[in-house]
Amino acid sequence: MADLNHIKGKNFKSYNNEGTLFMLNVGCNIEITDFIFEDAWCKSKGNSAFLYHTIENLSDQGEFHIRNCNVKNILMNTDFDMRLIGWNKKGLLLFLRYIRSFHWFIYSLDHKLENNEKNFLELENGVGKYGLITMTSSLNELTIKNTKFENFNKEFGIKVSKESPIKIENSYFNNSFFTRGLFSLNYFVDDSLSSTGNYTILGTTFENIYGIKGSVFDIEGYDYHNFSYNITNCIFKNNYSKYGGVIYSINDDSSKSINFTNCEFINNRSPLGNIVYSSNIKSIPNFSNIEELYEIEGAIVTNPTIIKKMNTTDDILKVYSGNTITDVIHCNIYDDFGKRINFHNNMNEVEESLSKMPFYNIKINDTDNAIIFGSKVNYCYYESCPLQKIRVVGNPGIYKITFILETFGKFMKFKNNTDTFEIEILPCPSEFNEVTDEKNNTIYINQDIESVNIKSCYIPTCNPKCANNGKCVNINVCDCDKTKFIGLHCNEYKQMKSIIGMDILIFILSIVLIISSIILMIVISVKKDNKLIKGGGFEFLIIILIGTILSYCYSMLSVIKKTEILCYATSILKNLFFVNFATILIKILRIYYIYYHRRHIVIPRFLMYIFIFSISLFHIFISLIELMKNDKLLKIKINDRNEQYEECVYSKIHDLSYIVNISIIIIGGIVTYLNRKLDKVFNEV
């Protein structure tokens, strides 16, 4: 028996295998009173508990009593599991007025102890990071009285063996975070259970405890039945958890194994069950004021237990094969009280859970005769799962569509996650000529448009609509026979058709005439000393023949499909042809000056060439200006038969060429008129 009173320890360092302050065996008894311990640094190579650790299976019971103790600033390094107090095999562990604050339990990832604390990992989650107290034998007894536990951040609080009696009285648990609850009934990797003993908790306050699944109680181990929690006159205040502000329970024995008597619940919060979140009614603990808690909105919530389709106007939906179901169909989830539950309560919640959105799938019972098209797989959001834009292509008959919730979002999976509704495929009216329009034409068409060997019954629809009085005869197919238009939607003009035979004839004649002109040029060149050729003027005749060749080229291009380049080419050829008129003009001017001018002046040949060359350059210059402007010359025109054709349309600057050409013709006509009284033909020297 060791009795330690009024002891104060500071700056303690331990390098033993267990890293434990007090290590007992062979039934030793220790009683510690008024004990203060600060600034500890311990290293352990195995499982360890800081204050109390027994290392053997003892045949005699040992006792460890703690009264009025204060432990501060503990830093531990261990290769495996650690906790503040525990690892006793047999005996009694008694706490009286124990105060704990500012502990660090450190787990070394590389199993090495070094002076640099940055190599340590503060325990928050996972193996080796349990919590306050661990007891590994069913013969243990644990009593905690008048004790305050604060500022813990662990996986869970207490782990004891099966059937161990634990009594907590007039104590205070505050400002801590447990990922799996202060009291966690759950399995571990080695199939061991935690918090499986028989608990009696009296007059204790749990305040500002935070967690994920139940801040104080996380009761899982759904197939384990040998446990009990009797909680009396306790206060639960300002606790928070994601599932169940105080209690998370999925064990069906909770209703008979967990009892809350005269307990007070103040401002506990959770998105799902401010006090309790359970898998079903069976897993709700027994409360002495259960009816009062049921009256509080959101105090007790169960996981969804069933999904059902909202009622629609008709028990059986009736549609034609291939038609979109227009009825609004929603499936909702309900808890074990029959209350509808929302998948999400607001947009922020939707955005936060995008990676865990609940998804559903729909199936039809007879896939040989019916097929679902559309959004067979979709997601649920806010209050329901909407069935959107689905079509059923099938033979006439009654079918069953099954809705299956595949993923459950933030909720646990539940068994009744399917619902079924019936749909009837009606015979297509086109088979009986039942439905016609005002012109007595059958409206519906019955065809296999999905390539599934099952016909769809549908009304022809065209989008966009058929224009110019065209008739819609199938899906986006218009009949334009009774219109002056063509195209998929009767909105295109017919192309003007040229007379192919005439085009070929013009092309061939143009080639023949070009060849003839070339032959004439050769003959004239050979016979240029001939009296008749000299009388007509050799250069004059050659220029005239060149002009005719250009006109024949213009005729050839006019029967070829027009392009922008051809528009420029035909413009130049046509204008250069008018050089012939300039040549004729200069010829008759020479005659006029010889016979009618008082001096009988002869215009020199070089002036004639300069005039002809200037006219040619002028036309080429106009065409180059149009080319540099990059204007589109090829325009679409409509003739009086509503036919479309292409035409070269030139800019206004091209009118200058017309003006020059017309001016040459007019002047030439005037000069020819003045020469009308010549009574003999002259021979040009």
Automatic annotation (TrEMBL):
The chain crosses the membrane at residues 504-526, 538-557, 577-595, 607-625, 656-674. Keywords: Disulfide bond, EGF-like domain, Glycoprotein, Membrane, Transmembrane, Transmembrane helix. One of its GO terms (cellular component) is membrane. GO terms for molecular function: G protein-coupled receptor activity. It comes from the Eukaryota. Disulfide bonds join C462-C472. Residues 458-491 form the EGF-like domain. Its main location: membrane. It is a multi-pass membrane protein. It is found in: Membrane. Gene3D superfamilies: Laminin (2.10.25.10). Residues 502-595 form the G-protein coupled receptors family 3 profile domain. The keyword Disulfide bond applies. The keyword Transmembrane helix applies. Pfam families: 7tm_3 (PF00003). This is G-protein coupled receptors family 3 profile domain-containing protein. It comes from Neocallimastix californiae.
